[in-house]
Structures are given as C-alpha cells and as structure tokens.
Amino acid sequence: MKVGNGPEKENSEEPQQLSPVLSALFARRYEICREALPGLFFDPWSEWEGSPTAQEQNLVERNIIDIDFGRAAYLLHRQFGPIEDERTVELLLVRLIKCLYLRIADSSSHSRLIVDFCHDVLNRECHLEYLDGILDSRRELGEEYLSLEASQTWILYWIAHSMDILDHCLSDAEALGIINFCESCRSEKGGFGGGPGHRPHAAATFAAVSALCIAANQQPEAYDIIERQKFLHWASHELKTKLPEGSAFRVSRDGEYDVRATYCVLATASLLGVLTRDLTADVASWISSLRSFDGGFGGEPSNEAHGGYTFCAIACLKILHDAGYLCDEEFEKLVSPSRHWLQSRQRLLEGGFQGRTNKLVDSCYAFWLGAACKIAEVPFNAAALERYLLRYCQDTKNGGFRDKPGADPDFYHTCYALSGLCLTAQSQASTEYIKTPLPEINPVYNLTKSTFCAARDFFGS
Ligand SMILES: [Zn+2]
C-alpha cells in the first residue's frame, strides 16, 4: 500500500511499500489518534450550536493525521523493516504521535527517530523560486490574482517582504519594479491607490509605503516616491472621522471606517515620522469601543472578535503607546482583557491559530495572532505553530505556503506564514526541534528589523 501523504521529498530509492502490519495500523489511524490523544480533537458538541464547520474541521484534522501517520509509519518502516508484532509497532507509533502533539519528552532509545519525525525544515530555495520574476515583470501573475486588481501594492509588499525574510537582496530590476509601479499608483492628493489610476486608499498606501521601504534597501531613491506631508494632509482631512465613541479613519474619502483603515493610517504615519497629536486624538477611545464580550476586537463596535481586527487594534494601541499618546497603565488596561482570547485561538492538534472562535486554523493568523500575542506579551506554543506552518502549509515541491493542508499556496499566505515563522524563531521553544535562522521582524509593522530601522532612520521618528 502506498502512503499517499508521506514525506514529500524522500529519496526515490526508499521503499514505498509498508509491511502488512503497518498498513493495518495506517488503516486505523484516526481511531488510534483519538484513543492516544483524548481531548485534542474537535468535538462539535462542545462548540457553539449550529457550528457550520464541523465537517470542514474533521477534514483538516484528517489531513493532518494522514500526513503525520504517513510519515510516522514510513519512518518506522525505514528504521525497523517489517515487524510482525502489531502491538509493538502500535506502541511505537503512539509514542511518536504523542511526542508530536503533546510534546512529551522522550526517554527511550528511539529518540533519534523522534527527532527525525518532529524535524521540519524551511525550504528557502524553493520559496524564492516561487516568488521570483514578479517584481521585475519577467513573469505575469496568474489569473487567480485577477480579483486582487485593487490590491496590487499589497502583492508587491507580500512578495518583497517574503524575499526580505528569506534574506534575498532585491536586484536593481526588482527594486525599480517596485518604485515604478508605486509611483504609477501615487495620488496627487497624497497616499497611493491599489493600482495605477485608482483612488488613494489607506490600506493600499500602507502596503506601497512598506514595499518602498524594502526597495530602499537596494535603491534609496525609493523613499523619495513617498510624499509624507501630502499623506498627512490627506489622512487628517479626508480620512479622519469623528464618531460618538471617538475617532477612526476611513479607507478612502467617503469609504467605510474600521480598525483596519485606522491601523493602516497610524502605522504609515508612524513609519514616516508624521504621527501628530491631532492625527491620533480620540483614536484610543474608539478602539476601546471595538472590544467584544469575549475579549477580542471586532472591526467596528458590536462586531464579532476577529484575529485580523484584534491585531489591528492591539498594534494601534502599541503605536499610540510608543509615541507617548498612551501611558503604560492605559495601554495595559486596554490590552489585558484580550489576553485570554488571544491565547485560546491556538488549536492544540493542528498547532496553528484560528481567526475566530469555532473556525478553521489558517496559516496567515500565525502572523496576525502571533504578532498580537507578541505585542500583548501572551505566550503561545511556538514549536506547534512552526510544525503547522512547515509541515502542513509549506509546499516543498512548488514553493509557497497554503492556508491549510489541501489548499493551494498563494503570495498572501506565503508572506504571513513566513512572518509567523520569524515570530516563532525568536521564541526559545522554537529551537527544540526546528532550527530556522530567520530575521527578527517588527510585529507592529511587519517589516524586518533592518528594513524598519533604516526607514525610521531616514524619516526620523
Ligand atoms: Zn488566511
């Protein structure tokens, strides 16, 4: 029997046929996992009534168990050859699986096997190949990106930041590609649109400014494309909105206001050194009105708590705090009710974060929630998160990261999975099984520390 989801890049001369004993155990894999790891699995009855995701959740869990069991059975086969005694093999399998999910320290003589089993590596070269050719226009985006017509500056940023994380210095052509494209998106009013000729938009502006800061590592004139006084004028006069709860920002003139736009404006202003008292006045009180009953933040008052919006809210508070517009006590008072909600978003079996209660894990929340945890000083299981990203979301054949096993990779999830790996790489727990030397990132702006510091130095804080 062929183990379909075994290791992706094993040596072709390795045996592909499992012994009858291992094959029989593989057929009982879900049952064995559920017995060995009671409580780690999704239980539809313990979740909210009418859960729409029970089936999908089971599918993700099964994908993950398939991958892990395939690998475990394969490793046992390689190490011991055909073992006749089913009970002995089952005990070994259960020990491997428990070690993986529960992180039980191993004292047996099979510790080498367990290290092999838990060890996952970042395939740098194949991710760089996946990202190659877009910034300098040697390759066109596939049609799956057509719906992102209004987010083209984001695509530049996702690719450039991923390359920065992977320690790839942009070529002159790649840096110029970013500079020329962003210039074509720049608005006379200040800010950038998502594509050439588009109206300026807060999110597209933050992405363009971030991409330009990365390009400036190679071509310092990238900074000159950014007109920060025009940006400040546009953000203050066209985007800032007074509301009963405080002040927020709109994505564009007459566009919707929410915490995502508010974060993009504050982060851009802070990065460019134009975070004025006028711009920030009353923003913290509006953000505090976004808290939901369970401790997270929604996009607008009374909305459900959401990982992306919670990141935006906490990052805004951090920006205001670091600029001296919130004192330590105020910051702590606003952030501390979110800690339990943040920590509860990491799922034990998968190791990844879910964006909302009762939703599926998704690799992009490795950054959105990992960074919010980092800013709010909430501990999370970094080794389990790395395992989720590297084992289940990394495409080691074609490059890139997917949101969950079974899906296709894309530039967005590649950027945020890699950013999440930078956060786990800074954690001590990371080094136990997985050594992935990655640069430090600033969790508020999601730029590498060196790119962030260079931009701050240029614009003055
Ligand atoms: Zn996602």
From TrEMBL:
Report the InterPro entries cross-referenced here.
Answer: PGGT1B-like, Prenyltrans, Terpenoid_cyclase/PrenylTrfase
Keywords noted in UniProt: Metal-binding, Prenyltransferase, Repeat, Transferase, Zinc
SUPFAM superfamilies listed in its UniProt record = Terpenoid cyclases/Protein prenyltransferases
> What molecular function does GO assign, one term?
protein farnesyltransferase activity
Q: Kindly list the cofactors needed.
A: Zn(2+)
Q: Which GO terms describe its cellular component?
A: protein farnesyltransferase complex
Tell me the ranges covered by the Prenyltransferase alpha-alpha toroid domain, including all copies: 122-447
Q: Where are the transmembrane segments?
A: none
* Name of the protein this chain belongs to: Prenyltransferase alpha-alpha toroid domain-containing protein
* Family under the similarity heading: Belongs to the protein prenyltransferase subunit beta family.
Highest taxon of source = Eukaryota
Q: Does the keyword Metal-binding apply?
A: yes
